[in-house]
Amino acid sequence: MANGPTVLIVDAPGNRLVDHVDETGWPLVPPTLLTIHRTSLRDEQSRQIVCKLDGEWVADLLYGHTRTCEIAPGRHTLRLHNTLIWKTLIFDAAPGSHMHVTVWNRAWFGYYVMMFFLGAAPLGLGVAPGIPVGADIAVPTLLHQQ
């Protein structure tokens, strides 16, 4: 796996944007959305994950929480951390698209032994495009990873 940010391109569905116009003929553009899920069964279920979009705080997600926010179409940088591990996700959002990202805290090998003897242990951070379905991530057809 290469070091550096992951780049995603999100496309708007088919002719959806041109099918809806207001009474004066101007196109109605549905909102562009970003949803960050922390509901995967892969999650270790402790510690918060801090989410920042384009340098602005979006959420501190605890296990079981999901955050949806409206974003401007275009290129965005999503920075995530669990106070130890940082991940960066760069994506392009087309007008009217809905971007889904799943995040989770991951227990490394030896995590439970360290917790038993030391009372603390580092956690990894997992990030994947898509919606959590049990322990798997369902990647919507709108996402294309470069």
In short:
With 146 residues, this protein is mainly beta.
Tally of helical segments? 1
Apparent shape: elongated
Q: What kind of oligomer do you see? A: single chain
Give the distance, in angstroms, between the N- and C-terminal Cα atoms.
Answer: 13 Å
Low-confidence runs: 9-18, 141-146
Helix content: under 10%
Question: What features would you describe in this structure?
Answer:
It is a single chain. By secondary structure, this protein is mostly beta strands. It has one domain (6-13, 29-145): Immunoglobulin-like, CATH 2.60.40. It contains one helix and twelve strands. It has one helix at 111-118; strands at residues 6-10, 32-37, 49-53, 56-61, 66-71, 74-81, 86-93, 98-107, 123-129, 131-133, 136-138, 143-145. A hairpin with a 4-residue loop joins strand 6 (74-81) and strand 7 (86-93). The protein is elongated, with a radius of gyration of 18 Å. Residues 9-18 and 141-146 have low confidence and may be disordered.
What tags apply to this protein structure?
146 residues, mainly beta, Immunoglobulin-like, six-stranded mixed beta sheet, four-stranded mixed beta sheet, 5% helix, elongated, disordered C terminus
Helices and strands, with pairings:
Layout (H helix, E strand, L loop, with lengths): L5 E5 L21 E6 L11 E5 L2 E6 L4 E6 L2 E8 L4 E8 L4 E10 L3 H8 L4 E7 L1 E3 L2 E3 L4 E3 L1
